[in-house]
Amino acid sequence: TLVFEPIVDLTAATVAGYEALARFPGTAGPGVWFTAAAEAGVAAELEALLVHKALARLPHVPAGAFLLVSVRADLLGSGPVQE
């Protein structure tokens, strides 16, 4: 699942945007899951899934706000993420 953390513009005291953050079941943090995905050879597919889910929520982001989605630099050009 994704959660959306507000990013605040401190000078204007307003929400400037949101960062999409991955959350997984159980007590292991996201880093454990991303490492496991890399070890299993499906890191790009996991990143692509999260990008897809985040972009699906874009219509719910208020006008004028941004949506930040983190993707590992080495996976940004991969086929699954590009699709």
Explain how this protein is built.
This protein has helices spanning 30-39, 43-56, 79-82; strands at residues 2-9, 14-22, 66-69. The chain is α+β, with helices and mostly antiparallel strands and 83 residues long. Helices cover 34% and strands 25% of the residues. The longest helix is centred in the middle third of the chain and has 14 residues, at 43-56. Strands 1-2-3 form a three-stranded mixed β-sheet, with helices on one face. The protein is built from three helices and three strands.
Q: Tally the helices: what do you get?
A: 3
Strand content: 25-35%
Q: Would you list the SSEs in sequence order as H and E?
A: EEHHEH
As laid out across the biggest beta sheet, the strand order is 1-2-3
Question: What is the residue-averaged pLDDT?
Answer: 95
Secondary-structure content class: alpha+beta
Number of strands: 3
> Which stretches are low in confidence, meaning pLDDT under 50 for 5 or more residues running?
none
What does the largest sheet look like? 3 strands, mixed
Percent helix range: 25-40%
- Overall outline: globular
In short:
With 83 residues, the chain is an alpha+beta fold. It contains three helices and three strands; from the N terminus they run ββααβα. The protein is globular.
What is the topological layout?
Elements: E1 2-9, E2 14-22, H1 30-39, H2 43-56, E3 66-69, H3 79-82
Parallel strand pairs: 2-3
Antiparallel strand pairs: 1-2
